[in-house]
């Protein structure tokens, strides 16, 4: 949390259901200079914080509000403890604040407000104006939907990229969405914007040197595992199982899988480019072509955790395809099925894995 | 503070619809009132939210709970704060919306 500004309100309230309304009344003056959407958001935050500290037989709670440069910092504290925010409250905190935190005795949020735009509040009108090129309307909408961009950028938190960079990229995506959105098409802006922002982030992920951020330990283990696998193959005349490999390296099986997959991920950027030394083979070959989603590094790193979901044969095929860089035909020969069948099995396995990694994909839109 | 609940509710029947006209704030203190107005399940319920000045997650939970227990729930002309909260929580499509009481008639 940033350094507090001037405290503008401190209030002790009884721990009862009416407390949120009391706090809203007390804070009404503070918010009176805000535009109505900001005022409403601020009041929602205040209510959520207080609701977390209200309960039977609890001691009074203390509400503090500080003025900060971009808005307010709100804190609710109770000696009887506060409830951790539930899913709905979390969504609201994530969408409405750049930072919030909860401890056993308090919850605090930072609220940024006051993009100065007077007058129009109806969203339909704003979109129409924005589509007609009104820069102020676009700015207003960018402000109102900044939380959406932030929320989407957080889905990429595991990429290892800096959070504020991701957020910046997401905001750029939002601006692009605003520039291209046509309200007369009847598509919801949130749907359209979410897709644009997501695309912007994915492109950024692809373009960044994110693969270098695979933790060093994992990289080294990956290298070692590869070498060991080659040795064992030579010695035994067949490829080692993940289990045998783990035993030989004296590390956890899961760890080896993760290391190998993370190693594989170093090439994930090249899903669309030929794999070195394998003419005509592209890493992305087996990905269903109608799906533009690439498998990103963090997803690959997660794969080891979900490979267990696959039947033995499919797992083996995935292994051959992505660890051994075999082409589909080579795999077909090795496993004794047709290349078409390998292709189908791969597509199905990857689809299944993706759904495990990202359940949202099953929902479709 | 002389606290009367910051909500006014009136119930009415409109064709097959049970209608609640809500005026004021839907929060921790008042949401239970709304929820308990529809204890009988499996009905057709229309919630007139045009005059709702404030709603937080407690209010939203009440709407969701009513929807879970009723056969059909429609929001009538939800006010900007209601629309805002639905949008923030990704629930814009979770409830059908009618622009007015009269528009209910065209919904079966």
Summarize the SSE layout with pairings.
The complex is a heterodimer of chains A (365) and B (108).
Chain A: E1 7-13, H1 19-31, H2 36-53, E2 61-67, E3 71-78, H3 87-96, E4 100-102, E5 106-112, H4 123-131, H5 135-144, H6 146-154, H7 163-180, H8 189-207, H9 216-236, H10 242-249, H11 253-265, H12 297-306, H13 312-323, H14 328-335, H15 339-357, H16 360-363
Antiparallel strand pairs in A: 1-2, 2-3, 3-5, 4-5
Chain B: E1 7-14, E2 17-26, H1 31-36, E3 44-55, H2 57-69, E4 72-76, H3 80-88, E5 97-98
Parallel strand pairs in B: 2-3, 3-4, 4-5
Antiparallel strand pairs in B: 1-2
N/C terminus separation of chain A: 37 Å
CATH architecture designation of chain B: 2-Layer Sandwich
Oligomer: heterodimer
Q: What is Rg of chain A? A: 26 Å
By DSSP, the count of extended strands of chain A is 5
Structure summary, number of beta strands of chain B: 5
Main sheet attributes: strand count, strand direction, barrel closure of chain B: 5 strands, mixed
> What is the count of helical runs of chain A?
16
Which residues of chain A form runs of ≥5 with pLDDT under 50? 116-120, 209-213, 265-302, 361-365
What would you give as the CATH superfamily of chain B? STAS domain
Name the pair of protein chains with the most residues at their interface, and give those residue counts.
Answer: A-B, 32 and 25 residues
Overall helicity of chain A: 55-70%
Overall shape of chain B: it is globular
CATH C-level category of chain B? Alpha Beta
Describe the strand arrangement of the main beta sheet of chain A, using strand numbers.
Answer: 1-2-3-5-4
Radius of gyration of chain B: 13 Å
Structural class of chain B: alpha/beta
The overall pLDDT average of chain A reads: 75
Our estimate of the beta-strand percent of chain B is 25-35%
Tell me about this structure.
- Chain A starts with 6 loop residues before the first strand and ends with a helix.
- Residues 116-120, 209-213, 265-302 and 361-365 of chain A have low confidence and may be disordered.
- Chain A has 16 helices and five strands.
- In chain A, a hairpin with a 3-residue loop joins strand 4 (100-102) and strand 5 (106-112).
- Helix content of chain A is 55%, strand content 9%.
- Chain A has a five-stranded antiparallel sheet with strand order 1-2-3-5-4, with helices on one face.
- Chain A is elongated.
- Chain A is an alpha+beta fold.
- Chain B is an alpha/beta fold and 108 residues long.
- Chain B has three helices and five strands; from the N terminus they run E-E-H-E-H-E-H-E.
- In chain B, strands 1-2-3-4-5 form a five-stranded mixed sheet, with helices on both faces.
- Chain B is globular.
């Amino acid at each position: 949390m940033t350094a507090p500004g001037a405290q503008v309100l401190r209030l002790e309230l009884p721990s009862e259901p009416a407390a949120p309304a009391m706090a809203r009344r007390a804070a009404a003056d503070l918010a009176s200079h805000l535009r109505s959407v900001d005022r409403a958001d601020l009041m929602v935050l205040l209510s959520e914080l207080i609701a977390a500290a209200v309960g039977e037989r609890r001691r009074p709670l203390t509400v503090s509000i500080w003025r900060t440069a971009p808005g307010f910092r709100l804190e609710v504290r109770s000696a009887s403890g506060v409830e951790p925010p539930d899913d709905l409250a979390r969504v609201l905190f994530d969408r409405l604040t750049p930072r919030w935190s909860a401890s056993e005795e308090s919850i605090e949020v930072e609220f940024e407000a006051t993009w100065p735009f007077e007058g129009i509040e109806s969203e339909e009108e704003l979109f129409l104006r924005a589509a007609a090129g009104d820069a102020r309307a676009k700015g207003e909408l960018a402000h109102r939907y900044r939380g959406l961009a932030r929320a989407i950028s957080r889905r990429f938190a595991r990429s290892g990229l800096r959070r504020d960079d991701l957020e910046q990229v997401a905001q750029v995506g939002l601006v692009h969405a605003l520039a291209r959105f046509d309200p007369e098409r009847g598509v919801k802006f949130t749907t359209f914007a979410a897709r644009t922002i997501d695309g912007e982030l994915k492109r950024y992920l692809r373009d960044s040197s994110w693969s270098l951020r695979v933790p060093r330990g994992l990289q080294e283990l990956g290298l070692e595992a590869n070498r060991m696998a080659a040795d064992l193959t030579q010695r035994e005349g067949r490829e080692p199982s993940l289990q045998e490999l783990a035993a030989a390296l004296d590390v956890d099986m899961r760890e080896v899988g993760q290391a190998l997959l993370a190693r594989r991920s170093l090439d994930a950027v090249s899903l669309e480019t030929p794999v070195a030394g394998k003419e005509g083979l592209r890493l992305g070959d087996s990905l269903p072509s109608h799906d533009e989603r690439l498998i990103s590094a963090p997803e690959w790193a997660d794969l080891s955790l979900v490979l267990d979901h696959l039947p033995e044969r499919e797992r083996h095929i995935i292994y051959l395809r992505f660890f051994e860089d075999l082409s589909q035909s080579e795999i077909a020969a090795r496993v004794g099925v047709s290349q078409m069948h390998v292709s189908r099995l791969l597509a199905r396995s990857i689809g299944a894995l993706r759904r495990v990694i990202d359940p949202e994909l099953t929902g479709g839109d | 503070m002389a606290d009367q609940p910051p909500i006014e509710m009136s119930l009415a029947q409109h064709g097959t619809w049970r209608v609640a006209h809500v005026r004021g704030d839907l929060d921790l203190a008042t949401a239970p009132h709304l929820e308990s107005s529809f204890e009988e399940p499996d009905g057709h319920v229309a919630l007139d939210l045009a005059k709702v000045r404030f709603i937080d997650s407690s209010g939203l939970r009440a709407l969701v709970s009513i929807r879970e227990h009723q056969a059909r729930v429609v929001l009538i002309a939800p006010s900007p704060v209601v629309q805002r909260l639905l949008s923030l929580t990704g629930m814009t499509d979770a409830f059908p919306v009618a622009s007015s009481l009269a528009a209910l008639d065209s919904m079966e």
